[in-house]
Structure formats: C-alpha cells, structure tokens
Amino acid sequence: MPSIDMEGVRTLGRELSNWGRWGDDDQRGTLNLITPDRVSAAAATVRRGVTFGLAVPADGTGPYSAPGSGRFNPIHTMTRYRGDDPRGELSDFRSSEDMVILGTHSSTHVDALSHLWYDDLLYNGYHHDTAVTAWGAERCSIQNLSAGVVSRGVLLDIPRRLGVDHLEPGTEIGPAGLDAAFDAAGLRPRPGDVLLLRTGTYPRHRRGADVGLARSPGLTWECARWIRDHEIAAVCADNFAVEVLGANAGGPMIPFHMLAIRDMGLLLGELFDFEALAEDCAADGVHECMFVASPLNIPGGVGSPLNPVAIK
Amino acid sequence: MPSIDMEGVRTLGRELSNWGRWGDDDQRGTLNLITPDRVSAAAATVRRGVTFGLAVPADGTGPYSAPGSGRFNPIHTMTRYRGDDPRGELSDFRSSEDMVILGTHSSTHVDALSHLWYDDLLYNGYHHDTAVTAWGAERCSIQNLSAGVVSRGVLLDIPRRLGVDHLEPGTEIGPAGLDAAFDAAGLRPRPGDVLLLRTGTYPRHRRGADVGLARSPGLTWECARWIRDHEIAAVCADNFAVEVLGANAGGPMIPFHMLAIRDMGLLLGELFDFEALAEDCAADGVHECMFVASPLNIPGGVGSPLNPVAIK
Amino acid sequence: MPSIDMEGVRTLGRELSNWGRWGDDDQRGTLNLITPDRVSAAAATVRRGVTFGLAVPADGTGPYSAPGSGRFNPIHTMTRYRGDDPRGELSDFRSSEDMVILGTHSSTHVDALSHLWYDDLLYNGYHHDTAVTAWGAERCSIQNLSAGVVSRGVLLDIPRRLGVDHLEPGTEIGPAGLDAAFDAAGLRPRPGDVLLLRTGTYPRHRRGADVGLARSPGLTWECARWIRDHEIAAVCADNFAVEVLGANAGGPMIPFHMLAIRDMGLLLGELFDFEALAEDCAADGVHECMFVASPLNIPGGVGSPLNPVAIK
Amino acid sequence: MPSIDMEGVRTLGRELSNWGRWGDDDQRGTLNLITPDRVSAAAATVRRGVTFGLAVPADGTGPYSAPGSGRFNPIHTMTRYRGDDPRGELSDFRSSEDMVILGTHSSTHVDALSHLWYDDLLYNGYHHDTAVTAWGAERCSIQNLSAGVVSRGVLLDIPRRLGVDHLEPGTEIGPAGLDAAFDAAGLRPRPGDVLLLRTGTYPRHRRGADVGLARSPGLTWECARWIRDHEIAAVCADNFAVEVLGANAGGPMIPFHMLAIRDMGLLLGELFDFEALAEDCAADGVHECMFVASPLNIPGGVGSPLNPVAIK
C-alpha cells in the first residue's frame, strides 16, 4: 500500500467522517447503521441452529507477557474450590468461587470509540480532556454497546481463498481483497454488516507459533473508504489490530485505526478466533451468520472482553 | 412452601437427576436440551429487531461491599486516559486503556455446574477432589458454555401479573406461580426454554432500596420438579439466588440450588435486570424472545460475568 | 485555625519551599534531613528490644467501601490452600498461595512526593505532564524511599495528654499543640525526626465507630511552618489525611497537604495504628523510638502500603 | 549432597522438630529465638548509619511470566495521574493514584509458616483442613510477623568468597559452606541470627541472564541441622527457593523447605537482592547488620511481599 502521512490521515478523515451524521450527541457511530430491519434480517440467516463462540480462552497464553508492554495477560484464580466451612457459614452444600483480572484489550475484545483518537478530539468531536478521564470515558464508553451488537456477520476467509493456512506477516488486504473475499463467499456487502476477517494469525500465536506481532497481516488504510462506501458497521479480526502492522513507513503506525475509530466511528474487534466457524463455512458454503457481540456493561469502559457468537 | 431437609433433598435429587442422561462424560447438563431446532426456533421469534441488554452495570454499587462476605464488587480502573507519550512509544495517535477485576459471581452472571454441589459429588457424579481444584474446574467449567447459550427466552413478569411494582422479601414463587406466569404470557413451556424470572429485586437494590437480601423473593424448591418436567434449559432471575432465601427453616439454606445445579445440571443466572425488557413485553404483549448469553471463555472458570441479550 | 485561600497557599508555599535546597534533581525532599548520624542516633534509642507494627490489617474493613470514591478496600484471596495435586506437578509436599490487590493509599501507607501538587508543578518544580504519566511517576516515585526510611520516631499522643480516649471530629492540632505534645513527651524536636501523630481516629473506624471521616481531626495548615522550622522529615498519623478535614471553609480542602508534599517535599503517612505503641509509651514514659518504614519497591509508584515498625 | 527420600525427611524432621518447643499454640516458630536482647544487640550493630533496601523492583520482569506456572508477575497500574476534575470533586489541588496486584510469593517476599507442609500437618501439628482454608490461614498466617522481624543479619557472600561473580546453577551450599562463609565474614553464628545468603542468582535473572531456574544454586537439605544447631531464626536468599533445586534425584523436590518450614518453623525469604549490601560489606569488611523485615499486615496471608532493610 502507499504510505499515508499525518496530514493525509487528516484529509482522508475529513472526507470519510461520520461526525454529526447521527446527531451532535451521538456516541455510537456506525452502530447506527444496524437498524431494526438489519437485526431481523440477521436472525433470518439462521438455518441450521448451530453456534460458534469466537473468543479465545482468556488465559496466560495471551500476547502480553512481555514486561513494559503496558498490558498483561488475563489472570484467573480460584478463590474457593472445596467449599470448606471452617467458620460454620455454610450448611449442607459446598461451592466454589473464582475471579478474573482482565485488561479490557488483552484477550478477545471490542474497542469503545473512546479507545483511540488524534489531534485531541475523539469521534464526533468530543475533546479528550473531558471525554476520557481517570473516572472513565464520559463519552463514547463501551456502555453504548450495552444492548448488544446484533447484525449479519460475513466471514471473509482470506487465507482459504488463497489456498493457504494463514497469511504471512506483512500481508496487506486492500479494497480489492475485500471485494474478492465477498465474491468468494457468494455474497454482497449490505449496510450494517459485520466483517469477520480471518487471517489465521492469533490462533497460531496461541498454538506457539511466532506470528511476527509487529508485522501482523491485516487491512490497509485504503480499506477505510471501502468500508465507508459499503456502510459496514463493524470489523472484527483474528489478528492484533485489524489492520496490517509495520507497513506504513514514515507515517502513523496505525492509520486505519485513526480513520476508523475517530473519524468514522467504526466498531473494531480484535484477537478473535474464527477457526471453527471457518471450517463450518467451508463445509456448507454459507459465509453469512447472525452475529451477536455483547460487551460487559462497564460504566466508563474503553473496551471490553467478550465472547461473540456466530449463529448459522 | 413446606420445609425440606437434607435427606429430602437427596431423595428428590435422585428422582430429578439427569446424571448419565447425556452420557457419563457429560458436563453440559440441561444445555443438551437446546438442540439445533431450538436455536433456529429461537431465531424465528425475532420480529421487530429490537435488542435488550440484561446486565446491570458492573460497578461499585453491587451487593458485596460488606467485609467478610468473601466477594467484592466489580472494580474498573482506567490505566491510561490521555495517551501521554513520555517515552516516545506512540506516534501520532492517542489512546486509552482500562482493566476490570471481577468476581465471577459478583455482577450479572451465570453459574457453571462446578459452582455448587453436596455430598462431595458434582453434577454427573464427578468427585470434588479432582473436579474443582486450585487450578480451576477440571470438570463442568464455564467453558462448556463457550459456544454461547442461544434459545427461546420467556419473560415471567411475576410482579406485573400481580399488579405490583416488585415482589416483597420472602415472596415464594411455586409451580403454580410458574404456570400462572406462562398463562399470563400467553405461552406454553417448551423444551430448551430459558426462563427469565422477573421479581424486581436487584434493580431496586441498585437504586438504593433495602431489598432484604437475606430474604430475597424467588422460586421454591418445589419448582425443581416443574422445571424437570417441562425440560427447561435454564433459569435466569433478577434476584440474588434465583430461589427464595430464608424460607427453608431447619433445612438447607438453598435447596433449589442443590437440586438444580448438582442433580439436574440446570443452568442458573443471577443479578439480571429485566426492567426495560419487561416494559417492552408489557407494551407489545409478546413475552418470548431470542435469548443469547455468552460467558467469557475462562478455562476452569466456575462462573462468568456477562451481558445476556434478549432479541425480539 | 484561620482560613487560607489558594493565594495564601501559594505565598506560604514559596516561603516554606525546599525546592532546589538539595539540588535541582532532588526527588527525596525532607528525607535528605535524615543523615547517617540521624540513622545511628535512631538505633541508639533502642533499649528494651521491643517492636511494634504500626499497620492496620489490610482487609475489607477499610474506609473505601463506598461506590464512587475511586478507591477500594484491600482484597486478599487464597489461590491455593490445600495443595491439591490433580496434575501431578507437585510431589510430596503441599503448599498454599495467595494474592493481594491493593490501592496504594487504601490501607496504612506513605505518600510519594508525586502523589499531590498544584499549579501543574510537583515538588522541586517538576511539571506534571512529564512527571506523572500513565506509565507511573517518572519523578518523585516511591522508589526514592526504597532504601527504607530509618530515623527517630516521636510519638505525639495528643488524646492521652488531654485525658481523652480519642480526638473528636474537627479537632485542630496547631503548632502550640505540637509544642505541648513534645513537652509532655519530655523531648525536644530534632532534625530528621519522624512525628507519629496519634489522634485515635482510624483504629476507632476499624472498630466500627462513625468517626466522621469528612471532619477527621488533625494538623492545621499552620503546622507546616513549625515542621519546616524544626526540620522534621516525616509526619505519620492515625487519621485519614494527617491534617484536619473540613476546617478550611472557603479555601482549598487540604492546604497542609499542598504545602507539605508539594512545597516542602515532606513525607506523609496515613491510616497508621499507634494504639499498642501508645500503651507502651504511656507505661514506660519513653516516647521516642527507632522508626523503620520500608515501602514496597514499586517502579513509578505514587505511594505504597507498608507496615512500619517502631523499635524501643 | 546425598539424596534424601520421603521417609528420610520424616525421620530427620522429627529429630529437628520444634513442635511444642514454644507451646502447643505457637505459630511463630523460630521467631521465638529473637528475644528482646537479640533486638537490642541488632540495633547495637549500627555504626555508620547507612541503609540498604533488599527488595527487587516489583515489576513485570519477575520470574513468573510463563503461562501455567500458577503465579504471575507483579502488576502496577496508575489509576489517576493528572488529577483531572471532570466531576468537580476536587478543588485546587491535583493528585495521582495507583494500585498493585501482587502474588505474595512473586517478588521479594517471606513465607508464612502456613505456606508449605507435608503429611497433612503444618508446623506445630496444625491440620491443614482447618488451618489453611479459602478464608486464609487460620493458623501460622503472616500476621504472626506483624510486629516486624528485627534481628542481626549476617551477609554470607558465597560467590565473593569463592572469587566468582555468582554461583552456577546446581551449586550446592552445605554446612561446611556455611561455616566457611561465617569464617570469611569474621563472625560466629548467634541465636536469633538472620542469614542473608547471597548466590548472585536472582539479580542476574532480572538483568536478563538465563539463570537456570530449575537448578537454582542454594542450600542443601543437610543445612537444616546446622541451622537448628545454631539457633538461626531465618534464612533469606537471592535465589528462588533458598535451597538448591534439581539436586535431590529420586526424592522430594524441595526437602529443605519441608524440614525448615514444617518441622523447624523456620522463616524463609526469597528473591532478595543483596548486590549493593554485598558491595558495601566487601568495602568495609563488616558483614553484620541490623535486619528489619516487615511484611504487610494481611489477615490470613500465607506470605507477603516486602522490602527488608539492612542497616549498618
């Protein structure tokens, strides 16, 4: 892909902007594209009654064990497991308890629109001084998704179309790649669609492969316009940042994120696992599903771990 | 309700037992009742394309602030909110990060079948010494729900049928109450159904009311047979323990739990919020929905916070 | 005490300032007053060989259970307690494990000099934009105390001198009160001293009393000059904020903090428990001790839980 | 060293046992050896007034990043760093806040006597069923150290005596090595002493060296008798488990731990950093110090992070 510099991001961001499109107070961005008829149409795609969880296990094999990354892998600890009753508080039953400590972006997750911005302004023009504080996101928090994200999901199985197991580090998926993936799926993009972008990256990381995190394959920044033109509501991927990493020499590190989250108000999901779903889609030839993603209801949250479900 | 003693629980437990019904290795219990045709039928209930999140906010107003309860309220903290870049690691964008610390049973949640048992044996006869250890649940963990729980949900709005805002502490809902609630909803129970039991309790707690936690209204232990007979897959409630508390003088504290989780392998969900869904059901007269609950994918977890969604 | 407004704080702050006194790069403030001879002199106060821990138990009875306070009480959970060995990793021994989740200011603690400031500048003129970031305190972190704080401690048992069990909410301790407490102790202040200010407040809170947190008794802002004049190195107290709360109508909420931490670089400790030490001092008439406080070695920390020790 | 099997541990354990020595209710073990005169004598060793913190930084470079170890490295996060005041709760000052999540054995720490045992019984004969439960250690918790551990510390700088920078993996230190180290230090062991055992291991791990964790150099099990004979109160080391690892082929993995903690009631500390102290001792030829270790006051804790201080 051609490089894009900061000024290029600003110019393209203005062109693709959804600021004000759904009102000056809007905090939901492209979720507004998922109208009730889109929800109903998604439900109508269910035929066989099979479901697929799209989350990787939230455990210590995540990508954030390195010191200094500022993130850490999920921690799960049992706090009671034998129901011992030394203080006589229980009676006849025994029970177990546990807890989790989770960075909201450290396992399968979606980003709130308050997660990323530039030039001091978030999506829809909210200033970061008052929108994202120590008390949490006052604007564009994950609670804007608290009724769930329900729409048609379309699996774009890029490596399978190319006849490979997974995409190599640095592989760029541009607008033409998205068109080709839809063609291969026998589908046309529809407003409100959720793209489920399979690269094969993160499940391989979990199996111990060195997947070249810093050069993760993914979308080019040019896909932002394609996504805007096709009125896509969300993109979820099985890589680290949806977009290709390490490919924009001389410009911002993650230009697609900047355009997508801040200018377009696009929902992004990362660290997904599409392996089982992809097998199923390859087997029955149906690449659309009812997609249901329901983040935790975290006041002020700027992201959330979750386990999205694909229903076919 | 009549009291039931420990021996009574054992006898009734044997009668209602689902042990072995789905194989000696089964760890999913009544989720087996949700066959693919039940999933498809659930999707077919979607008409208007509206969605309702059923989780309360995971915040510090939960029920577990008292010292010594062994649980604690959800903790959410921002770990970055201004995107400051003192070390030059970022470039042109700014971002925010946060984390959550969650007891898996301290906000809206579902119980894994490894959460509760008696007489040293869990559901399907697994011995607690090897099934629930410091390393997590080796059997019946929450990962058995990792493909999501998708079925028909039926809102049983008990207080509204009775013409009250909420049920008083100690109010018992027995089998006849369940029948009456289905009648009022104009529906018949079907195998695989998820009961959404509204009492009005927990949302009132969150609004600051003293709801009498120790005498929370809910199901009587007699409902266990009703639920077994009607092949119900799950019961989710907006109270603390699904069942009525403080009502079984002289016997086990929570006999319904013991029968439901351990003998029947029934999925239970607690601390739900049905207020908005109930308003909608009262308005359109439709009390069934597509219910999608997707716990976090926690290896060895004995429960999970989540945000279930009702789709109508 | 007379009120002080923001402009008064600024003026007095300049007068009492220790900025530059120990070099432009100094991050230790009044700890510089604890010279090696002060350490040796502190050791020389040890006569009977008795020790007192000054920390309250780090448990759920702390002061921060209320939602929205932005702090939370200490959490301690066992993560292994029976040494079960389901996976064959252990051999002949059994062991237990646990973990703690601690706000660094939520139980007995000391403040790093990066904990509080005004007008955008920290102690010694460091600008908050670069000194205190999402990655931690780059200046004035708790690591500046990582060799331990060892000096003479002087117990100022204010209520006992007044013949009462504890000070009532709102009680102000001014410079004359400090003089009187030293007189009652039969001691003279020396450079490098650590004041151990007993009010009786926090231990009562832990015993269930309503101690009027918002009007906690303590030092007046006028004590800042007294402390500067006498070259005191640190003040540790058994209340919530060292200083009296709710007493500076119309001015800043905690003017002593602003002067002490930001302008003077004074070490403050809070939520201490002096009950046992005070009994001992009353019994033997010796109110000085060797004081050893050793915060956790937390890179970038802005405070630390700890268990200071008084040795007599 | 010769191997020791489980029966050998039991036999030697009975011989070295301190059970009942300080009463049937004792929970402090060898801390009883630190009598007031030992505390005073420790204070009398202070000459130059210099202090050394012995804790490594509690950060993400600890030894527990590997998935499945059941431990995790310390987590420190800022929760407020700019004092933003969007809700008007603050007035004129700005402040910062942070928190830590710490496994009690995952950085520099001491073990409570409830941390390890065998044959179902802890130190002094407490049964593990009632002594160590989900609610914490009911016996032998870390709170038994809450008045601090203050005694003479003796640095045993094993590698320096041998003319090397650090001990190689697998290096065994036996009773003769302890005698030689005392001789080299020009000191004789005294009752109540705290041994500060330098191997050079953990500081090297933190500098990125592969130190062969599974074969960490350290004490042989034969040192247990030496320690018993010399009435040592505690052993703290800069390796992973005080004792040599991987050296007892065919027998228990950590026989010294079993004898020391369970039979003798000996205080152990691990993951210390003696580098700066060792430089100082080499320079002035004085290898004794006043040692002050003060664990956090954690009710029911089975260990504690801390920052011990050596004062010379």
Automatic annotation (TrEMBL), chains A, B, C, D:
Pfam families named among the record's database cross-references: Cyclase
Gene Ontology molecular-function annotations = arylformamidase activity
Q: Which InterPro entries match?
A: KFase/CYL, KFase_sf
Any one biological process term the GO annotation gives: L-tryptophan catabolic process to kynurenine
Q: What is this protein called?
A: Cyclase family protein
Q: Which organism is it from?
A: Actinomadura montaniterrae
